[in-house]
Specification:
Layout (H helix, E strand, L loop, with lengths): L11 E4 L28 E4 L6 E4 L10
Antiparallel strand pairs: 1-2, 2-3
C-alpha cells in the first residue's frame, strides 16, 4: 500500500493515466533518445483520497534495471 507523501494516508492504487486531447496516452522510456526501443510499460497512478495528491509509478521495475 502506497502512503501519501503529503499527509500519510493510504493511497488508492492502480488508477489509469489519460492525457486530455491526445489519444496516445503517456509513454515512459529509459532513454530520452530512444522513443520506441526504450519503451517501458504504461505508468499507473495512486491518488490520495484525503488531500488529492497524485503519484505516478511503474509496477515492474525490472525493465528499468536491465543494462
Amino acid at each position: 500500500m502506497r502512503k501519501c507523501v503529503r499527509c500519510g494516508a493510504d493511497m488508492v492504487e492502480n488508477c489509469g493515466v489519460k492525457v486530455k486531447g491526445a489519444a496516445y496516452g503517456l509513454v515512459l522510456t529509459d532513454d530520452g533518445h530512444k522513443w520506441w526501443g526504450g519503451r517501458m510499460e504504461a505508468p499507473k497512478a495512486a491518488i490520495c483520497p484525503k488531500c488529492g495528491e497524485v503519484s505516478l509509478y511503474l509496477e515492474h521495475m525490472e525493465k528499468l534495471n536491465k543494462p
